Amino acid sequence: MKTLAAVLLVSSLCTIGASGQSLQVLNAASFLANEALTPGTIISIFGYRIATGTAQAGDPQNLPTTLGGVTVKIGNTPLALFYTSPNQVNALIGTNIAPGSYQLTLTSPVGTFTTPITISAVAAPGVFSVFGTGTRDGAVLNAITFSPGPFTVTTHGAPTYLSIYVTGLNLSAAPTVTIGGTPVNVTFYGNAPCCAGLQQINVQLPPSLAGAGRVEVAVTAGGMVSNVVEIVILPNPGEGLFPPQAENTPRARELADVAWIPGTHMALITDEEDDVVRIADLDARKIINVIDLPSGSGPNAVAVNAVGSIAVATERDAASVALIDLATGIVTAQIPTGGGPSAVAFYNNLAVVANEDSNTITVIDVTVPQVTATIQVARAPRGLAIDPTTGIAYVTCEDAGAIVEVNLSTLAVTGNVPLGPNSRPKAVALLPALGYALVVEPSDAGGDSIVAVNLSNGNIQTTGFQVAAAGNNDLVVSGNYVYFADQTGSSVTIAKAGVNNNQFTLTTESQVPIGLGPRSLAIDTLDNFLLVTNEGDGTLVLLNLSTLQIAGTINAVKAEGESEGEDDHHDRGEAANQPLVQSVQPASIQPGQTVNLILNGMNLQGATGLDFLASGDANSQGNGDSERHRHNGHNGHGPFSNSDPDFTVTAIQVSPDGTQLTAVVTVSMADTPGPRAVVVLTPNGESNPNASPHDTLTIAGATQNDQGGNGQGNGNGQGNGNGQHGNGGDH
What we know:
This protein is 2% helix and 45% strand. It is mainly β. Among the domains are: 4-119, Immunoglobulins (Immunoglobulin-like); 127-233, Immunoglobulin-like; 578-706, Immunoglobulins (Immunoglobulin-like, Sandwich), CATH 2.60.40.10. The strands form 13 sheets. Strands 10, 11, 14, 15, 16, 17, 18, 19 and 20 form a nine-stranded antiparallel β-sheet that branches. The protein has a five-stranded antiparallel β-sheet with strand order 1-2-7-6-3, with helices on one face. It is globular, with a radius of gyration of 26 Å. 57% of the residues are buried.
């Protein structure tokens, strides 16, 4: 996890951009514009070649007004500067600047740039995120242990307190905070001591949130709602199918989305921590196959085409999607998308992907496969639904509080339906027989808000309907029945939709206890099942829609052949599609030498690179000791932050059947002698990183005792942070 100071200094260089010489001024946490700018707010100014170089302030508490030759003024008042670069400047609106309309002027060695700016008396606070995007994992710490999530509701046997980091918070009155739609107790709010313009809010996690899984966090101040970020809340130790573990301990497996494979008795389940897609046999009530994705990809949403031949899984942490051939279980392509792809749906041969970080949707023709269009929408697209008759995609843009309509025939935006300044829409589903779209807002402070939108005229109707528990994360529709996942209520709510005197109505039919943290829903029309992934307890529940009784429960974190109680990445190492290295030729190389390396094995198709891991450096998939990838901020080439940098690899070629890979490999003169496990990076993940006699390349000069290393995972996934429970925190 980045430190907050690093997030403040750099924020996100790739998420927001501006073309030409125009400037865009946004809240540096939420990336919202004028409605989120108030005195005391940290801002990001985006442009194109607005400065000559990069510079950052040495002390984020005592900031200069000139940095890297750059000055910024609002009216005649200079701003303190955190960071400058050719395309972005981070600054602080002084508390001495009164609300009103101004001209912002940026002066640098390149020239002078101006833009109008409005400073509001009260604005929506911006919540910082781990990735510096204002979306996904929030910059939230355990206020007692100073560690990032995931969190349990107790720490050392007492209630857990969290520190949430924001900017632009109005300190004249206590803010309100919802987690998973549940209002939580605010125990402290005020300025954080580490950085100018940064505020901290401490809250207590209530016992009712235990096992809720990935839920939203939102802050309301001055009647205005922040951007939405997320945290993961684990069950109490010993609950669910996972083996008992200590409080606040990350798990190796976290269920995300589910999709039924049409015409079959099977479903796909994504696991965002294990970086796999599991195939569930709904008749046999078990996981029958595991499909590897690249380590660190963070698979989230998954969709299957109408004929059940191709699946697309969004890789939220890799800005890409995986195309999966369901006949073979092989990932046939990795397609780059925008940042943070978080939802996907099919329209004929087109896969439509909502990119939460980059405010775009990506349209992919899966038959080619290639991207056919990238379309700009509003802030933080989070959910989508497609009308198969009209070809209109309805995209919920969470932080913009709107639904954007995209015509998939013309690949153009055709409409924008504002839902209100404090609306934070997430999942959306269509009721075509009634002519409505139904939207859920899991961060609604008054309990879940369910909004109906008339598709013929765009009129918005608040339904007055609330699910049985807050934290509704997903919904699906079958006929005129709507099924809601009550994520913090461990249940599913079933309602019947109708229209009475031009008013959309929802009537509760039933509430069914379903398990801990129901996160995602799908309908199996062949078996007439509602499929529910319970992130908290690791199950897939099959609810019979005729009887509203649970027809079966599948252990969705256990692959066939695994022993009970696994909580590691062992199933990745045994996936049928995992690349396998069976021999390395030559077996040794001299420092400074260049060789034509030949690897023989299986599933090597589409190889994109090679990593060389020294003994003891492997970030193991199989032993569960490594808490790898996204939560420790690793974002480098390949999954292994400790790959030997003294190797250069070019001219990778793979045989059509994926059984042989050749490459030109050079090792520098300065490299240390010893064995290296050769790891192949492919669209189907990586070959096993644990060194063995079959996949080792030795740098000559090693002693006999150095040969044949046994790599072990050593990542820990922990961030550095300081915070204080009850008063300001510095990290």
